[in-house]
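Subject line: Sequence and fold of a protein, written as structure tokens
Area: Proteins and the way their chains fold up in space.
Start of record: The labelled sequence and token lines come straight after this line.
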Amino acid sequence: MMKPSVQIAPAALLWGCVLAANQAVAIESSPTPDQIQAAIQRGKAAAEQRRSPDQLYTSFGSTDDLMPRGFLMTKLGGVLVMASHLALRALTPSEQDVAQVLDDRNLLVNVVIFGDRPNFALDSYVVLEQGRQTVKPVNVRFDARAERSSVWPQSPAYRAKVVALFAYADFDPQAKTKLSVFPSGGGEVSFDLDFAAIE
């Protein structure tokens, strides 16, 4: 069972990891045509370098296989990853492809957490804290039955995904933000993110 009040450290591991070529000033809910084109070009460049599209997500948390981590999918991040996927097949995103990504009204947050029971992530909840404001998600999904970890049956024996959607209209895209996951069995897994440094 996950112990109560688990805090993941050190803080240096928790800041949102920004892509090397990222020049964004904040999470952008209404990207400009120039920003969109730049994301497409970076996706193509990543494909030319044979970088896997899953390396392009804005990730956070630990790089340790047995520690909590996750990634964010913003609008421009979605365009970047899509462009990379298509470029690997010698294709370019159509206007319709791009519009579909940009029409999404929600920031996607995907977190991997660890526990010692197969159903430890059942009914997990996620919130964002920005100063005194608590932002609730519009939707949360979780693995009702977790996968075995690489050290099963030793602790932590199981790993599970928790996915939350947050409406862009509900949060400050430039604020320092605490992302917290609360498994139903107790405990808390937290990450400190700087939205101003995330595209």
Q: What stands out?
A: DSSP finds three helices and ten strands in the chain. Helices lie at 33-48, 75-87, 95-102.
